[in-house]
Amino acid sequence: MSKAFESIGAFSGRMASKPGLLSGMMSTLDARVVAESINQNPAFLSQLVSNLDPKALATVINRNPDFLTRLIKELDPEQVAASVNKNQRFVTKLVEALQPNVFSRSVNVVFNKMRRATFRPGSSQAEAAEG
Predict the structure, then answer these.
(1) Using an 8 Å Cβ cutoff, are 105 and 69 in contact?
(2) Residue 124 located in a structural domain
(3) For position 16, what pLDDT does the model report?
(4) What band does 77 get if pLDDT is binned at 50, 70 and 90?
């Protein structure tokens, strides 16, 4: 099955590297459905990312910043981290090509997600000093 995912990922990556095609798709895609697919198929995400052109994807994201924000909110952080760790050069080139306001909005979503995941009610500094 992994060979099939690799082939599909490679083909999808080449197709998704065409800015007009991907931008048009993103304008009508449901971010929750895309996130569910990604969360259920981590191998596919890694293969897809390894075949994408980071500058072309950045162009598409810059044209559809709201989609990226909605997508990040729905993605499983462990799945994304695994894919990012396997494709660090890609991520670096993608971030360099993103418009600053698009990148900062995305980072804010990630930080808020991390904060909610790690916030522990009742664990204030005063309680820490008492314990």
Answers:
(1) yes
(2) no
(3) 66
(4) confident
Neighbours of 29 (CB within 10 A): 15
Tokens of 63: 């044209």
CB contact set of 48 (below 8 Å; sequence gap of 6+): 9, 12, 13, 16
Domain assignment of residue 7, yes or no: yes
At 118, is the pLDDT very low, low, confident or very high (cuts 50, 70, 90)?
low
In a domain, residue 125? The reply is: no
Flag whether 123 is in a domain: no
* Total number of domains constituting the chain: 1
Give the range of the structural domain holding residue 106, as residue numbers without chain letter. Answer: 2-118
Cβ contact 57:12 at 8 Å = no
Q: Which of 82, 76, 65 is nearest to 36 (CA)?
A: 76
